[in-house]
# Entry
Amino acid sequence: MQKPVLVVGMIFSSPQVFRAALKDYAIQHGFDYTFVKNESSRVTTVCKSKSGCRIHASPMQMGECFQIKSYVATHKCPRSYQNHMVTSSWLSSKYLEKIRDDPNWNIHAIRKSVKRDFKVDVSNSKIYRAKRKSMVCIEGGYVEQYARVWDYCDLVRSRNPGSSVKLKVERPTLVVMPTFQRLYVNLHAMRQGFLAGCRPFIGLDGCHLKGPWGRQILSAVGKDTNEQMFPIAYAVVEAELKESWTWFLRTLLNDIGSVETYGWTFISDRQNELVETFEEILPNADHRFCASHMYNNFKAKFKRKLLKDTMWSAAYATTPIEFQKKMEEMEKLDKKAYAYLKKINPTLWSRSAFNPKPKCNLLFNNLSKTFNGFILPARDKPILTLLETIRRHLMRRFQNQRSRMDKYEGPICPKIQEKLEKMKMGACDFHIEWSGGEEYEVQRHGKQYVC
# Structure
């Protein structure tokens, strides 16, 4: 069937096999045909170019096998490069194994391969449909995978003891079959690693999935001792709603402990749904807004560059006096911009008012953005393939990080050591005077500090 050769008397096991061989033969030889008869008892085709090419096959007298009874191979027309028989299903069957080996095979690269292998031009949309059909064969369809979510949850719990996997379904009445609503995953290694070696700092965010039913994936991401993101938990939900965020945060806190016990600090974009959730279930928790997201809202109203620079200076201010000074500058520049920022509590966006307990002065929710990019290859896949792709990515990441640190010989993590080296270089600008006990007076560029 790779390169079929048709001759009179050739036998096929069924009409379907004969049609498939005829189709491959016609595509590889560059001509198109039409059916005169297309039945289970006989198949007759003629070349569309009307050059006289004709083939007829029917069942053998003794048995169910199909046999070519007559074949006129006179084909004089030029080769066709726009063959309607090259369908997405046919392409999917031909390139299934190559796509299985390389699921990220580019659409344009597949199109070039088709042109080289079969001398046929096909559209990008047809290639896309062919690849999608191949991925369904390889991974399973969206509907079929949703039907196996319960089994997946049980499998994770049994094979990865200590993991927390929560499934929520919608079922208005007992006579109605349940439908998927939300799925939460907190693997044992993620929870143990976060509690054992990360700061009490959590980034929250959501990103869209690319399947036929949309949905979003919510994530909670920590910051490890090497200043890198450490995923804690994720959930597939219907949308970024107040209800879904409330469910996710409550489930997360049940796994990692309460805010009152551990003093978690959260950072997020300024989503209204998430703000409402914090006001309802975590009114006393430290919550920061991503300064970049906050600035995007600010610049929509106030576009002057000087206002932009002053706002960022206020965000980066490390003392209340410095923050107040920058806010006074903002008031002089634009009273409306000052009033806009004054309404927002500085604990949400300025380093000068951050809680020092988490030992983290992050202004941006880059932890969550990094995780969203980390799972990008999985976001267009069916639900189980999505979850397994993320799990395998995490497994490889944890092991790679562990192996890298096993080879590292320094007393502290490499990124922290790098920061210390930069601080050492900058320390030459400071002049220190000991004032007794544990108190010092520090001078730098005409300014004095006491610590």
Observations:
- The CA atoms of residues 46 and 189 lie 64 Å apart.
- The chain has a mean pLDDT of 89.
- The two ends are 82 Å apart (CA to CA).
- The longest strand covers residues 201-211.
